[in-house]
Amino acid sequence: MKNIFSIIFLSLMMAATLTAQLDRSQRPQPGPAPVIQLGDFQTFKLSNGLQVIVVENHKIPVVSFQITLDVDPVLEKDTKGYVDLAGSLMREGTKNRSKQQIDEEIDFIGANLSTYSTGIYASSLKRHQEKLLGLMSDVLMNPTFPEEQLMKSITQAKSGLEASRNDANFIAGNIQNVALYGANHPYGEVQTAESLDKITVDHLKNYYNTYFKPNVAYLVVVGDITVKEAKTMAKKYFGQWKKGKVPTHVYQDPKAPEHNRIALGNRSGAIQSTVFVTYPLEFTPGNPDAVKTSVMNSVLGGGVFSGRLMQNLREDKGYTYGAGSSISNDKLIGNFTASTEVRSMVTDSTVHEIFKEMQRLIDEPVDEETLQMVKNFMSGSFARALESPRTIANFALNVKRYNLPENYYATYLERLNAVTIADVQQMAAKYLKPENAIIVVAGNQEEVLEKLRVFNPKGEVELYDAFGRPAEAPKAVSGEITAQTVITNYVNAIGGAQKISEINDVITFMTASVQGMSLDMQTKQKAPNMFYSAMSMGGNIFQEQIFDGTRGLVTSMGQKQEVTGDDLKELELQAALFSELNYEKLGYTLELTGIEKPDGKDLYRIKLTGPTGKVSSEFYCVETGLKLRSEMSQETPMGVVTIVTTYGDYREVKGVKFPFSIKQQAGPQTFEMTVSTIQLNTGLDNSAFTIE
């Protein structure tokens, strides 16, 4: 049974002119670095240990308050997810207010209040600051973590995981975390539906009671408020917050691998790969190499369009729309990551070019023009950031949290201006490791795996699933089993060729849920290849598709469009009733690639190539023979999207089984369809497929 859906997803440059006569044959020498006048901030500490930072800004009557915990990350083990849930559920109810009351009071004063695992942020007009602080302190000191809200949040989180499991960046990100840090490091843990199901209210309460203490916290106050007012407010609303002993944690530092590793997450049928080249770095905040390394990384691919990765992979090779790199600092462990998305066929070439640019920066000094352009870009970005009072507050917070020199940010431009060509090459030699990296790829395993082996001295490729768990390589299939054998088993499993051939027409009624909206759907099919579908909401049809055996038409929101070319051929193929009986006649080629476990069950995977060249993957259960999954990639205005359809709840209708549950994922969109009624051999007239 085929269903057709149309899924559509929807520098500023400035120049200055010099009027004086200039000798343009000489590059002007850079002037001295300007002295930065950072805004003033004041600090004080309450008797319970809460450290307060105040940044006054009286330009507009707005004030914000931010509580930040300075605690070590927690290893959550098989209950990964409870730390984030503890943070988000703090505002879902207190001993004094329900969630609804909190929401209503915040809305009434036009304020913002958000909570997270390491703190709280709130802001409002100055005249409402006391009301806001009353709410904020109540949420901070009296959360109840309602069971009902926890269950709702877990359900939402699981839905989010399900919607993301086929997203290439989600897959690559999970694999990167596992490969970089390992299972015994908090940064290497990956949230799953199974870990969410094990979380209880007690986990949330234990985390809150253990880590939310004033003696490991900072209160940052920014806006239209004086230091005197801030002291009064802090004492009044946070002075009763009880301090306590907070545990610290020590984790083994991950190391870059001795030789390049390859970590691959399979996306069957994908025509693009997401590629990360990454490794851990001991790079804590305040590292003396920070500014020089930032310049080096900007030359390679960090933040400027002229970065070498962008110029190579986009402008020269045409492999991608974008490529970049980053060196992140962290109080536990930092990392280097170069990333891009490219066509499957150039995945290995992309990795080669990334390594080439890394090595080039090590071997060759950067030219003066490039160095000066990067420094100018970084200087401008820093200057723009200073326009926000919150930037000053964050600078002050970093100075306190990481024991930085008091003038650390005030001397930033001076240190940036002092970076030399030799500095850039030295930083490249110190921090770029093209022979000690982890190559993470989320892509079509069938197409990229063998080509990636060259980057590992032993030709080894580690396989992972979407959540960073080790995955099995596809199992070989006995020579007695062919693609046609699998199709025959499927036909027999749903009722047999004889029963199926007796069906002349099918009418299907379905309901669908799309982003919380309820839709009604109806499809009609008549042998050999006439098709009609309608989607409606509230009784009003907003989309129709028709194929009358020769012509195709799509009507959407009152607009009609004739289907032509390859799209018409695809519509004809999808309109075929029980096409599995006639794959060869319809012009399909089939290849049985092996046995895979995309959803934990052994499934035969058949690579199905249509007469237009369009490729899809069809998965059939080894045990039952039923088709449980299909995957295909489709070009959209927003790029390539992998569409995954799963089939379940097979029920018998007049001796033939049909799936009554169909779920389709396309990027972030999820369509859940439930069949209510299937009618067979009703004597559909050809007029039901008339194109006017």
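[next item in queue]
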Amino acid sequence: MLRSLILLLFTAFVGGLSAQQPLDLIPYPASVTRGTGTFTFDADTRLRTESAAQRQVADFFTKQYARATGWDLMAPGRGRKAITVRQDTALGDEAYRLDVNADGITVDAGSLHALVYGLQTLRQLLPPAFEDSTTVTDVAWEIPQLTIEDEPRFAWRGLMLDVSRHFFPVEYIKETIDRMAFLKLNTLHWHLVDDQGWRIEIKKYPRLTEMGAWRVDQEAIAWNARETNDPAAEATYGGYYTQAEISEVVDYAWRRGITVVPEIEMPAHVMSAIAAYPWLSCTEDTIAVPSGGVWPITEIYCAGKESTFTFLENVLTEVMALFPSRYIHVGGDEATKTNWELCPHCQRRIEAEGLAGTDELQSYFIRRIERFLSELGRTLLGWDEILEGGLAPGATVMSWRGMQGGWEASKEGHDVVMTPTSHAYFDYYQGNPDYEPTAFGAFTYLNTVYGFEPTLDSMTQAQRDRVLGGQANLWSEYVPTPAHSEYMLYPRLWATAEVLWSPRSVRDWADFSTRTRRMFPRFDRMGINYAKSAYQVTMEPQVDPAAPSVSLRLASEFPDTRIRYTTDGQPVTAASPLYDGPVRLSSTATVKAVVFEDGKPVTRPTEKSYVFHEAVNARATFEPTYHQAYSGQGDVTPVNILRGSKDFHDGQWLGWLNTDVTIELDLGEAKEISSVQLGFLESQGAGIYFPTSVAVSVSEDGQTYTETGTFTRELQSAPETTIEDFGVDFPARPARYLRLRVAHGRSWLFLDEVLVR
């Protein structure tokens, strides 16, 4: 009797623990009511549906279930346990209710796509081994008893993939759709056209893919340093999607609750089209598809020729036959209208339509395309530049240059999608550039994404009702491969998904961070190449120039991490000191620091050297003085111990534009020295180049200088951002004054420290 009572109490205790184990769900549901105990899947569990359509959209779940468990949810017979799927029209179109008890699971859904969301939640409740591609036998296939009532906060929950700057195969597009569905995102914005490549087959205009889809391969050169291509040069880099492939992707996405919205750029970002058909431009010059960055964008469609609109209407007709989406994105951004100012066709159009100038001509262009789409039952969507000159009546605005464009459009009664650079641009760095692949020179951290709010406090309720939602954007100038694309997307896309789905009341950065970290093993099993940048240790130095000394604060973006460090350049181990407060340095040190979990380092260690050299606190003068936009910490910048990073906006760099530089240092007293090294940054895509020579002269009296040596180097093509020290070593000699002549003269020169030893 006593033994039975103990067993009963123990079972109840374990059941209670199971019921209260954390729910690792992203995005987090609107409402969760926890029960007691679990539901256990077994070989007799079956999926019961009401229709073939339900079985079709549940296919992703039943197939993965069979792979991981070895059991067939669709096997003959009703089974002892069931996952029962029901349509409930009383629920919202994207709402579902998931009820789990000991005897079975019920998923009530307002639509087929809501059923997908319910099954994705069920999937995330299952153990991470559910994501395996082969049968796993040593796992308890059970989930906690609970009731979830859930629906999204916003109707538009999107991701934009740019496949023009770099082309990605269909298989990767489908993988991305699978990841989006996992996160309950519902809109894939497919950027199919840009200057650097036309990626969609248009049967009426075959040269768009025969010529416009290909460019000269300059992949070994930094994006913005690539040369203008000769139209006669062989074009070997690129690719495109056939109409059959596009239909396949659209159908694949629909089965997973995702609508694919195509973007066909106009009137700018279309050099790929003009390369194929020069008559589309004002000048009709023969051009090549560019291999890299283009700015300003002057080669744009001619708005004065009727043939341009005939071409676009024919293209859009084929596009609409492939994409059932209500929305057709037409770009509308970054058009430099220089050629329109000079074009007789455009000037005649301006006069005939009574337009005030080229801004209104762009408005005419967009309004005309909007009218064409509207007559065919579609809605024009464009970047916020389509506001310029007046907004087309039925247009929807995608606000990217901040939130103001969305505010203005909503004030005028237009629907908007918020996607500001500040929170939604995933081609930006997500961590310290010293430990990240090359990206656009700005930052969108994981916690920044999680802080995104698509509505503004200054909006009226009517304006808020016009905000459809938001999306993340991954432009691919610096993203050449699928693996790199995944790295830039995840985990930031998980944050976007939660922002757009979950109520504000359940969102919490610390909780999201914890769930994200606990879900990494699941994503490992899914084979996702996610970034661990939020673990990377940051070092915040505070210099006391009088001592001199440096006080270092260590942190990671994820809260409550365990950071271990060394100050002697030795590897960091599980036995290294645990960080618990600022680290003080008073002599030369190489600091390494890394987050540890389960006794192992999570990332590469952050490493920084702090050299207390002979020129620390020296008086420095410059001829010419540094550029006001890149003034670092002022005159003390190259003698303050602190080194710059690959982020040239970090406040530790002095910059000069198109000039040689002379730097003079007064060490305060004569010192025995034998080496002078200067630290420089090169980022050719940003127009920053290493010097071609550094000449070092020294003096004891400040009057008579002796040259100790000159370092020279040839200009070299370099696609990556790098930091190097250049200078000279020489036999030891006394010196108080140094004169350093740096030859450059090309674009930007960036200097962070002068190390005198």
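[queue empty]
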